[in-house]
UniProtKB/TrEMBL annotation:
Its main location: membrane. It comes from the Bacteria. The keyword Secreted does not apply. This is Lysoplasmalogenase. GO terms for molecular function: hydrolase activity. It is a multi-pass membrane protein. InterPro entries: TMEM86B-like. One of its GO terms (cellular component) is membrane. Keywords: Membrane, Transmembrane, Transmembrane helix. The lineage of its organism: Bacteria, Pseudomonadati, Pseudomonadota, Gammaproteobacteria, Pseudomonadales. The chain crosses the membrane at residues 16-36, 95-113, 120-140, 146-165, 177-200, 206-227. Belongs to the TMEM86 family.
Length: 235
């Protein structure tokens, strides 16, 4: 390998590092500004900056190894962006936001299925248990016309959690499996707090708990693509 090739490689690595720092700055600026907007009840400001952290993750994801896994994670982030806007938009667009995140979870589910097909009974039981408990709590407090949409959404996110956990202990790279599983757990936790604060027991810290765990979940899911390879595990 010649000196020119080495120098070119160093330049590409430097450029990638600068891009990563740029996306990180955008994410932090958006996150801090959104949290400030929450604290002063600035709805318009929150609407404008809420998508920035996920937008930064989408840009960062472009540097991950290409393949089916990355494509499905990208699609999930795109629909998450749409969901962020719909849920922050003035007026009650909760059902539409729910629909956008439903598609996002199905995209993540497809990503996890792209490299792991084993049944994984224990993760399935855990995911079903979490979903059943949460839906039971929400239904017992009355969902009205949102009953069917919430059940459909709860089923989808439980399936996403199952498939994320199913990748643990397989031939899938350990770092990718751990990041995706942690991200899925954080995402489920965030959505659980949304359900509890909206339908069961509102509490002042809910918006902060929801958004911070949501961002953590999206980061874990996105980061899992950087340690991924494109083979399929059935074990």
């Amino acid at each position: 390998m010649g000196a020119g090739s080495v120098a070119g490689g160093d330049l590409r690595l430097r450029d990638l590092g600068q891009l990563t720092v740029g996306w990180l700055i955008l994410a932090l600026m958006g996150a801090v500004t959104f949290l400030y907007g929450l604290s002063v009840h600035a709805s318009l400001l929150c609407l404008l900056v809420k998508p920035l952290p996920v937008l930064a993750l989408l840009g960062w994801l472009h540097d991950a190894p290409p393949g089916e896994y990355r494509r499905w994670i990208s699609l999930g982030l795109i629909f998450s962006l749409l969901g962020d806007v719909l849920l922050a938009w003035p007026g009650d667009l909760f059902v539409f936001g729910l629909g956008a995140f439903l598609v996002a979870h199905l995209a993540y589910l497809k990503a996890y299925l792209s490299d792991c097909r084993r049944l994984a009974v224990l993760p399935l039981v855990l995911a079903l248990g979490v979903g059943a408990v949460l839906l039971g709590i929400l239904i017992s407090n009355g969902l009205g016309p949102l009953l069917v949409p919430v059940i459909v959404y709860g089923t989808a996110i439980s399936a996403m959690l199952w498939r994320a956990l199913a990748r643990l202990g397989t031939d899938v790279p350990k770092r990718s499996a751990l990041l995706a599983a942690g991200g899925a757990v954080a995402f489920v936790f965030s959505d659980s707090v949304i359900g509890i604060s909206r339908f069961v027991m509102p509490f002042d810290a809910a918006p902060y708990v929801i958004i911070l765990s949501y961002w953590l979940g999206q980061w874990g899911i996105t980061a899992s693509a950087f340690a991924h390879h494109n083979s399929v595990s059935n074990r």
